[in-house]
Amino acid sequence: MRRLSHFHGVLIVIASGVIFSFGPLTLRATTEATDWQFLAYRSGSAGLVASLWLVLRRRRSVISVLRSADPRTWLAGVLLGGTMVCFVLALTRITVAPVALMQTAAPMVAAGAGWVLLAERVRPAAWAAIGLGAVGVAVMLGGNLGSVNTAGLALASLTPVGLGLYSVLLRSAPTGDLLVPIVVAGVLSGGAGAVMSLAGPGLGLPAGDALMGFIAGGVLIGLGLPLFNYGHRLVPAAEIELLLLTEVVLAPLWVWIWPGETPGAATLAGGALLLASVAGLALTAERLEPARRPTRRARPPRRRYSR
Q1: What is the pLDDT along the chain (307 residues), one digit of tens a residue?
Q2: Rounded to an integer, what distance in angstroms lies between the CA atom of residue 28 and that of residue 5?
Q3: 193, part of any domain
Q4: Helix (H) or strand (E) segment spanning residue 158
Q5: Residue 1 lies in a domain
């Protein structure tokens, strides 16, 4: 089987960002679910689906796989679980656009942590794309922070820190099962959601709300996060978070189409700059790929015989 290249990794991460972008739409489609109830169903179903895949692939119990996992993989799962909690709680307090915008700081966190902890060299093209993305952030923030809920904004600001460090931890850990962090995150954040829900309204939800929670976790995270994790084997940490900005651009557009969370002109203009930075990084990654052509063995020189 042909080994996947850096460019293939770029495409895989972009695909995961597109899948993640539908997450806020599932929350907006609920009618009665509270933030903690939705979190319990979303994270719990993500952890359940990842556990099932883990058993089918490894032919071992989930407990035995978790016991053999590297501590950095566990820590990555803890960070991911905390990021899941902050993301959902932020979405219930402010609109999708500002929550998505805060994630644009993740490449800066990943670049700094990857440089310090992994000694990863950040390509000049990646730095240029990060700079262009920062301009897009500035444009969007200038038109969105006037009336944003402070608690929601504070929760949203923690998501890029978790995502950036999560990327670096995955790249620093030895090759292992990429489903382990999803199981850990799902158990921790889903358990927190269940405990908080049982202390309040309980876990009973209409069938439609429960279905949205399962789609958000079991389908979108269950499909998108393994792709995202696999991309870490092919793409440096700083570029991973930059490519994931496709989620930042597309998520506000979906909730603009329905249920009508209209983004301002600043959001659209900044989103265009972010999309340009992602596209530019993908194109430079393709140009950097070495040509892999089968090499022919050199023929020995012909001998000339004198008569």
Answers
A1: 467 888 999 999 999 999 999 999 999 999 999 999 999 999 999 999 999 999 998 888 999 999 989 899 999 999 999 999 999 999 999 889 888 878 877 877 888 888 888 888 878 888 888 888 888 878 877 776 666 687 888 898 899 889 889 988 887 877 667 789 999 999 999 999 999 999 999 999 999 999 999 999 999 999 998 888 888 788 887 788 678 878 888 998 899 999 988 877 887 888 888 878 877 877 776 555 544 444 444 444 444 444 3
A2: 37
A3: yes
A4: helix 150-172
A5: no
Q: Which residue has the tokens 């709300």?
A: 209
In the DSSP assignment, the letter for residue 258 is T
- The pair of three-digit structure tokens given for residue 43, joined into one six-digit string: 């994270």
Contact 97, 262 (CB under 8 A): no
Which residue range is the domain that position 46 belongs to? 6-288
Residue 297: inside a domain: no
Q: Is 73 inside a domain boundary?
A: yes
**pTM score:** 0.82
Identity (one letter) of the amino acid at 2?
Answer: R
CA dist., res. 41 & res. 203, Å (int): 9
**DSSP, residue by residue, 192-252:** HHHHHHHTTT-S---HHHHHHHHIIIIIIIHHHHHHHHHHTTTS-HHHHHHHTHHHHHHHH
How far is 227 from 185, CA to CA, in rounded Å?
A: 16
94 vs 24: CA distance, rounded Å: 11
Name the residue with tokens 């700094």. Answer: 112
Domain tally, the chain? 1
- Residue 234: phi, psi to the nearest 5? -120, -20
**Which candidate, 234, 11, 288, 284, places its Cα nearest to that of 130?**
284
How far from 81 is each of 87, 121, 213, CA to CA, in Å? 10, 28, 16
